[in-house]
Amino acid sequence: MSLIAAKIVVTPTLMWAVSAAARRWGSLVGGLLSGLPLTSAPISIYLAVEQGERFAADAAVGSVEGLGAVTLCSLAYALCAPRLGAVASIGLAFAAFVLGGAVLHGLIRPGLWLATAIDLPMMALVVALCRPAAPAAQPIRRPPRWDMPARLTAATILVLLVSTLAPLLGPGLSGVLSPIPIISWPLIVFARVQDGVGASLDVVRGSAQGAFGVLAFYIGVHATLGAMDPVPAYALSIAASAACVLPWLFARRRPRAA
Fold first, then answer.
1. CA-CA-CA-CA torsion for 206, 76, 116, 217, nearest 10 degrees?
2. Helix/strand/coil (H, E, C) string of 141-202?
3. Of the candidates 46, 41, 38, the residue with the CA atom closest to the CA atom of residue 3
4. Transmembrane stretches, by residue range (predicted)?
C-alpha cells in the first residue's frame, strides 16, 4: 500500500471505530478513545517517513504546545457549557484554542518540558470540572446520515493537509496542528445537540483523560525517535500512550461498591 493510500484508508478507519464505540458504549468512552493520538500518531509517522526523523521529533515539541491549546479549548467549554447556549460555548471554546495556540507556540514557545508542566494541571482541571453525567433515561437517538461521512472526511483532510504542507509549515507549526481535536469535537457537538450539556461534558472529560496518553506519546516520540529505529520508537510511544489511558477505561468499567 502506498503512503497516500495509507493516509486515505487508516485515518477514516480509526475515526469510524471511535464513533462506533461512542454509539455503543456512550459519550465518555467515545471521548476517551477520541483523546488518543488517533490522528496525531499517523501524522507523526507520515512526517517521519516523508520529512525525516529529526523533523518528526521536533514536531512532537510543537504538538505538546498545541496540546495545551486543545486543553485550554476543553477548559473553556467545561466552564461555559453549563452557563451558555451551545453556539456561544462552542464558539468561545474554539476562540480559546486559537488564543492558546498563538500564545503557547507564537509568543512563549515554552519547549517540551515547560509545555508539559502547563498541560498537565490544565488536563487534570478539565477532568475535575466535567463530572460524569447521570445515565440518561431517554432513548438514544439515531444520528443523521451525514454525521459519519462528515467525521471521516474531516479527519482525513486534516491528516492530508498537515502532512502535505509540512515542508512549508516547518516542524513547529506542523506539530501544533497535529493534535487539533478533529475527532472529539464532532462528538462533543453532536452530544450537546442530541443529549444535552451533560453528555457533551462526558466527551470532554474522556478527551481530557485521553490527552494524558497523547502527551505521553509525544514525549516518547521526541525522546526515542532518532535514538532508535522508528518502528520500536513509535511502538514504545504508543504503548506509553495506552498505559496512560487504559486505567481510566478500567476505572470506568469497574462496578462501584454499594
1. 30
2. CCCCCCHHHHHHHHHHHHHHHHHHHHHHHHHHHHHHHCCCCCCHHHHHHHHHHHHCHHHHHH
3. 46
4. 25-49, 55-77, 84-105, 111-130, 150-170, 231-251
pLDDT at 139: 46
Distances (CA, A) of 164 to 24, 88, 124, 154, 174: 34, 33, 34, 15, 10
Backbone angles phi, psi at 38, to 5 degrees: -80, -30
C-alpha–C-alpha distance, residues 69 and 62, integer Å: 11
Whole-number Å distance between alpha carbons of 256 and 231:
40
Question: Is the CB of residue 245 less than 8 Å from the CB of residue 213?
Answer: yes
Distances (CA, A) of 210 to 96, 110, 240, 249: 20, 22, 12, 10
pTM: 0.75
Per-residue model confidence as pLDDT tens digits over 210-224: 888 888 988 988 988
If one compares 141 and 108, the residue with the highest pLDDT of the two is 108
- Torsions phi, psi for 22 (to 5 deg): -65, -40
Each residue's pLDDT tens digit, 101-120 = 778 766 676 678 888 898 89
Give the Cα separation of 35 and 61 in Å (integer). 18
**Nearest alpha carbon to residue 165 among 15, 47, 11, 10:** 47
pLDDT at 255 over 60: no
User: Which of 107, 103, 105, 85 has the alpha carbon at shortest distance from 95?
Assistant: 103
Grid look-up 478533529 returns 182
The DSSP secondary structure of 55-112, one letter per residue, reads HHHHHHHHHHHHHHHHHHHHHHHHHHTTTS-HHHHHHHHHHHHHHHHIIIIIII--HH
For residue 119, what is its C-alpha cell?
Answer: 498541560
3-state secondary structure of 228: strand
